[in-house]
Design a protein that fits this description.
The chain contains 17 helices and 18 strands. It has 552 residues and is of the alpha/beta class. A 7-stranded parallel sheet has the order 9-8-7-3-2-1-10. Bound molecules: calcium ion.
Length: 552
């Protein structure tokens, strides 16, 4: 299956391409040897990862329950994540993981926490977490945990104590926080209002934006802020490198100003404990709203504008968006975020645990071309890019949330080692692409493509850190050419050229088109068999292909 060619042949052909006529015998040999080579893999094998020492990384989002089961009880666990670190880091090249909630919780998804300073026994122990963090740090992989402080579980002892107290209050008597401090931890009121749930057996209501099982915390309370400080310190002391902040738009549902002010407090509080800690906020709202959240000093916010089935990434991959427009949108958002915080780090992603997986909505995509191309568009964005587990296999899952969190398809055999049971209530899902064990051997699989895209990101820091400069004279509906130079000193600038069309396109790189002459073809991403060529400044891009050029 694997079609590995001799590297010298491909290198020779690249050199020859730039220098006109060569001896005919030599040319023939090169052409012959080239037959049967795979340009994408051959160039990728020459890439050297540049280890990151900052927050510009490539992150892998993991739903622990569905990832890898280390002890055979059918439920993924922290030791399972540790066992698969060679897959995550050594094979795929990710240097950051984000673990969805791992604290004790009555739900399968664990976004309703009952104890913030413990690990759910289904997932393991605090020691297991510590071991995972240590194993990650040995590989320069950072670990982010989910900080869910908009709300607790209704079974959290703070809430049950407050509820019991209110139930025991004689009619007409006002609650006294001196008798029960936890009544001030939540937003209780006697007035029924939108976003509030009735406290059974009383005439009280409590704020519960997501569900009655998830009472919202009173983030104005000094006591609650003290608890949050302790929770952050607990995880940072264990070596956690930062937090993904859940549901920030619900911190103060009706007030952007109060939200930004709380985010600012949270950012200061976390960084007082560890100045190197990294925060990325979930603000599932319009772009201008979350751009303003950067004023809080929080490092990153997920870039929702480019995500989802109708986002810019998916639309361009489907051919429903202009390539030039995509590039222009990148430049516009970088300027927008920089205007709110010069230190912003964008957090691109295009699917997550709340969204349909893309393989399901790219319906006319039997060979995975669109799933691959979209994956690359996400990974070529600047900042700290995230990939949701299983996207690198083109897994499917849509509709109810459980379907979006299906067990990782390591093998076609559901009883194979490490395979997890489906979350309760998940529909049966027929996957579109084979399991990992088959894809890893296939040079044209979604997996191999993703692996190459991450390798490219790891090899060229300018791609992660530089601002996008679209070369308008070379870009159009189908082709986007842009340059990234690192902000600050150091790594070489890169030029990326992508062809979003379903037919071959050529780009003429003239001396005038870029200030630096980009004359070396350093990496390519091919959605199907083909070859990118660069000859006398003419770059030929097969359908849905991407070329990375560097200056000599
Ligand atoms: Ca297990």
């Amino acid at each position: 299956m694997r079609r590995r060619g001799a590297l010298p042949a491909i290198l020779l052909s690249l050199v020859l391409a730039g220098c006109g006529a060569a001896g005919s015998a030599e040319e023939e040999t090169a052409a012959e040897e080239e037959e049967g080579t795979n340009q994408m893999e051959d160039l990728a094998s020459l890439l050297e990862p540049v280890p990151s020492d900052d927050a510009y990384r490539t992150g892998y989002e993991i739903f622990v329950r569905s990832f890898y089961d280390s002890d055979g009880d059918g439920i993924g666990d922290l030791n399972g994540v540790k066992e698969k670190l060679p897959y995550i880091h050594d094979d795929l090249g990710f240097d950051e993981i984000w673990l969805m909630p791992i604290c004790p919780s009555p739900s399968y998804h664990k976004y309703d926490v009952t104890d913030y300073e413990a690990v759910d026994p289904q997932y393991g122990t605090v020691q297991d977490f510590q071991d995972l963090v240590d194993a990650c740090h040995e590989k320069n992989v950072t670990v982010l945990t989910d900080l869910v402080v908009n709300h607790t579980s209704s079974e959290h002892p703070w809430f049950t104590a407050a509820a019991e107290y209110l139930k025991s209050l004689p009619e007409g008597e006002e609650p006294d926080p001196n008798d029960c401090p936890y009544v001030s931890y939540y937003n209780f009121t006697r007035t029924q209002q939108d976003g509030y749930a009735k406290l059974t057996g009383t005439d009280w209501y409590y704020e519960a934006r997501f569900s009655e099982d998830m009472p919202d915390l009173n983030l104005d309370s000094e006591e609650v802020r003290g608890e949050i400080r302790d929770i952050a310190a607990f995880w940072l002391d264990l070596g956690t490198d930062g937090f993904r902040l859940d549901a920030t738009t619900s911190y103060y549902t009706d007030s952007g100003t109060d939200t930004i002010s709380f985010l600012s407090w949270l950012n200061d509080t976390v960084k007082e404990i560890n100045p190197d800690a990294y925060l990325v906020g979930e603000a599932w709202t319009d772009q201008n709203t979350y751009a303003a959240y950067y004023e809080s000093g929080v490092d990153s916010f997920f870039d929702f504008a480019f995500s989802g089935s109708e986002g810019a990434v998916a639309k361009l991959a489907r051919g429903k968006y202009s390539a030039l427009k995509f590039g222009t949108a990148l430049m516009a958002e970088e300027a927008l975020y920089a205007g709110c915080s010069p230190d912003y780090i964008n957090a691109p992603f295009y699917t997550n645990h709340d969204m349909a997986r893309s393989a399901g909505y790219f319906t006319a995509d039997a060979d995975g071309t669109q799933a691959k191309f979209a994956g690359a568009l996400n990974l070529l964005m600047q900042g700290n890019a995230f990939v949701y587990y299983g996207e690198e296999l083109g897994m499917k899952g849509s509709g109810k949330d459980e379907n979006k969190r299906a067990p990782m398809v390591w093998s076609e055999d559901a009883s194979a080692e490490g395979m997890c049971e489906a979350p309760p209530g998940m529909d049966a899902i027929t996957m579109k692409f084979p399991a990992y064990e088959e894809q890893r051997e296939d040079p044209w699989s979604v997996f191999t493509y993703y692996k190459t895209a991450v390798a490219i990101r790891d090899a060229f820091p300018a791609l992660k850190k530089g601002s996008t400069e679209v070369i308008g004279s070379l870009s159009d509906e189908d082709v986007l050419v842009f340059v990234r130079e690192e902000r600050g000193e150091g790594d070489a600038p890169v030029l990326a050229a992508l062809n979003a069309a379903e037919e071959e396109k050529t780009v003429s790189l003239t001396a005038e088109s870029t200030a630096t002459p980009y004359d070396t073809l350093s990496a390519v991403l091919l959605t199907k068999e083909g070859k990118v060529t660069l000859k006398d400044g003419t770059l030929t891009l097969p359908a849905r292909s991407i070329a990375i050029l560097t200056a000599d």
